[in-house]
Amino acid sequence: MQDILDLIQKEQDRQNKGIELIASENYASKDVRKVTGSILTNKYAEGYPGRRYYGGCEFVDEIERIAIKEACDLFECKFANVQPHSGSQANAAAYRALMPNGGKVLSLVLNDGGHLTHGSPVSFSSNFYTFIHYPLDKDGRLNYESIKEIALQEKPDVILSGYSAFPYEIDFKKIREICDEVGCLMMVDMAHIAGLVAAKKHISPIPYADIVTSTTHKTLRGPRGGLILTNSPELIKKINSAVFPFYQGGPLEHVVAAKAVCFKEAHTNSFVKYVESLMENTKICSKTLRDLGAIATDTENHLFLLNTLDSFGITGLEAQKKLEEIGVTTNKNMIPGDKLTPKETSGLRIGFAAVTTRGCTKEDAAEIAKLIFNYLSNKINKEEASSKVKELTSKWKLIENI
To answer: Rounded to two decimals, what is the model's pTM?
Structure first.
């Protein structure tokens, strides 16, 4: 066991000493971590509260009921399934509920910011369903008229929105109008913006979509897991059947309990202030990079894209590896119109969810932008850059104290 404990300590040190800019990562609170590591992991509870296939579920039943209630209260919806082990499994169950016999889905071009489960050839999604895609405009934004034209021509069963690398607000009302005109269903994957929606800093998809899926560990700052929401009493039955028994067996009740904790935490004024700071930090970093001469998108949420190929003459992979040498963690990412492969990419996806949790200020965000620009431009060496990382992280909360 000691080897595992030693590696956990090394990972804790890495997190404390580094600047985490991966947009899909965050730091869960001590309460969330405590519940995730609780004795609830011992309990098998296949089925749903009051309808389990095992005995001894009276307490986990109540916990799951609380998690469902908290999710519905937080997102102002009628029904929730809190059992999906991940966002990918939540999407799989949602597709199953909406298209039990297969069907056609219209979603964003993957290289423009879609997720693997939105029709990638390496994902289950494209093997079980037919995917067609709409592109972004030349300015990197959604063109709702273009989406409507494609939808009217292709007649999809479902129009999917919600993305993994899209820095602007999504007008779900317009997409609902397109769905109604086409006569199809609407699904939203809000995994990345769930925290912003919870804090009412992004338009909510709940009043418009037939089904909304999410993760709970990104901007929502909870345990790793998935979530499905709907206002339809008919669809929640299909969703529940798709999660269990179709795709999953026993739910992870320790994670379900931690989801309940994170939903409660997200329903506080302090969480709203966190999201406000997160969005401000992201905007300041992207603007500072542009002011310095880099090619980066603006942002209306928690992330932006940095074109490293045209800004610094290096691929996204090369930029990711170089920044990791000084303790700045990012991830390579395709940019709209990218001509490189997904293994290389022309850019980075940068997000401020994690560092804002640690206490990153708007002044720090500007300094991080200067650090990235100067190091990738070779204006400062590794020693100077590492020193700046140490200076910034020394002011922030330790991971174990969050």
So the answer is: 0.97
